[in-house]
Amino acid sequence: MATDLGQYAAKGHGYLAFPKLEGEISPHMTFRGKKMLTWSLNNYLGLANHPEIRKVDAEAAAQWGLAAPMGSRMLTGQTDYHEEFERQVAEFMQKEKAFLMNFGYQGMVSIIQTLTDRKDVIVYDQLAHACIMDGMSMSMAKRFVYAHNDMAQLEDRLKKAQKITERSGGGILIITEGVFGMRGDLGQLDQVAELKEKYGARLLVDDAHGFGVMGATGIGTGEHFGVQDKIDVLFNTFAKSMAGFGAFVCGDAKVINYLAYNMRSQIYAKSLCLPMTIGAIKRLEMLRSMPELREKLWKIVRLLQEGLKERGFDIGTTQSPVTPVYLEGSDQEAVGVTCDLRENMGLFCSPVIYPVIERGLIMLRLIATAAHTEEDVARTLEAFEVVRGRIEQGVYKNPELSAIKLN
Question: Would you give the distance in Å from CA 14 to the centre of its chain?
Fold first, then answer.
């Protein structure tokens, strides 16, 4: 039986879990009545509250409401706007065809379930996102995991998968991510693509954290590595750089048509509402035509990450705006650090502890965005230096010393 994390709700609910950030979406919001500098929103390009986005969203909602179109895409939910977004995003992503989906997590689950059957083998990265894990749990394919970004082990798994598919007549699907959202490092797509071709596999990439951020034009991690054409099935959500909800999958027309006509989560669910669909077209336009948003994001990323490294902080191997800061400490100290940052320094970021990372480590996960300022970075660096000093002094080992209350 899975561990019931709900047993801890009485202590941390509303603070460590299910916190309420209030006010306009920005780096500066309110938490429990206090102004916070927040680093926990995936609003990479700062589009969530951009005036042009707000205007288009509002006008589309006023014209169409939130119900239109009614029904699934296959039955009564198809519109010119859905098709127009698909045309534009396929062109941008340098793929033959794209299909717009109503949700991201649900979309990835359905893609994996639809693409594979009992004859196939899936080979996936150890740190694959939960939506990938759930998708595989609904697939009848055999599966092998390889250690995170370990190409030697990936090849070993592919050799085993090839022996199975030679007997079964199935295929091999490699699944990895472009940017791993917890640690910020990149899937080694160039090396994965080489192995994919060597063993006759197909490659499915979840690039939720890379789309709009990575690559010379923001296409994503495939562009960053120069292997965009080697990715057979490419999946992206709107929940990050596009600051919305929904998703799309793109690739060869034959594959995308197969998915569109067979994904149960799309056939039997209402299509993406028109305000979000029209808003997605606008978001894509801005992502393509305003490189200054991406340039501003990376300026903040460099200031934050270089500032942390100069001060001796361990930020792992991140190559993306996701910035993990690793500190030594217990789970109790992680709570103390988190509360101290929020209550005494007005800084909101997300703590990560075992089993997501190794026991005895605390990860404070920062998400830099184009909406942050140099002053935000300077304030954060100063706060982290204070926190590190208090960890070294053992302040957080005694809850009474930190004078912090969760409730």
Answer: 23
